[in-house]
Amino acid sequence: MYIRYLYKLCDLHLECENYVEAAFTLKLHAKLLRWSEEPLSQLLKNDKYPNCETHRDLKECLYYDILDYFDKGKLWEPGLALCKELAIQYENEVFDYIQLSALLKRMAIFYDNIMKQVRPEPEYFRVAYYGRGF
């Protein structure tokens, strides 16, 4: 049920073009997965990724979607952290140097974007309620 609501929330964020929020929402699902070849339980599967059979497959697909959303939302710094985690997997675990090469090129683009593109300052508000009642 938790996974289903994560995807509903992600879809709502995408409809409103809140790409960064959608990325962080998908990241909550990715945190539940491990970098292993363990088959996915029925609770962790989602219709959006029907070809993913193992934890590693689904986590990798989620990470690439998250990276796309961070890129659309122009928040590349958290995306770089995910890229570094993926790079470790490609370099030390699965030895997929073609994917590693593509990932490092994407990281270079992210670094260029951080240095060259003008972005608005993100604004956050804290709301607190004090007292005995409303």
TrEMBL record:
<dbReference type="GO" id="GO:0005886">
    <property type="term" value="C:plasma membrane"/>
</dbReference>
<keyword id="KW-0344">Guanine-nucleotide releasing factor</keyword>
<dbReference type="GO" id="GO:0016477">
    <property type="term" value="P:cell migration"/>
</dbReference>
<dbReference type="GO" id="GO:0007264">
    <property type="term" value="P:small GTPase-mediated signal transduction"/>
</dbReference>
<dbReference type="InterPro" id="IPR043161">
    <property type="entry name" value="DOCK_C_lobe_A"/>
</dbReference>
<dbReference type="GO" id="GO:0005737">
    <property type="term" value="C:cytoplasm"/>
</dbReference>
<dbReference type="InterPro" id="IPR026791">
    <property type="entry name" value="DOCK"/>
</dbReference>
<dbReference type="GO" id="GO:0031267">
    <property type="term" value="F:small GTPase binding"/>
</dbReference>
<dbReference type="GO" id="GO:0007520">
    <property type="term" value="P:myoblast fusion"/>
</dbReference>
<dbReference type="GO" id="GO:0005085">
    <property type="term" value="F:guanyl-nucleotide exchange factor activity"/>
</dbReference>
<protein>
    <submittedName>
        <fullName>Dedicator of cytokinesis protein 1</fullName>
    </submittedName>
</protein>
<dbReference type="InterPro" id="IPR046769">
    <property type="entry name" value="DOCKER_Lobe_A"/>
</dbReference>
<feature type="domain" description="DOCKER">
    <location>
        <begin position="1"/>
        <end position="134"/>
    </location>
</feature>
<dbReference type="Pfam" id="PF06920">
    <property type="entry name" value="DHR-2_Lobe_A"/>
</dbReference>
<dbReference type="InterPro" id="IPR027357">
    <property type="entry name" value="DOCKER_dom"/>
</dbReference>
<comment type="similarity">
    <text>Belongs to the DOCK family.</text>
</comment>
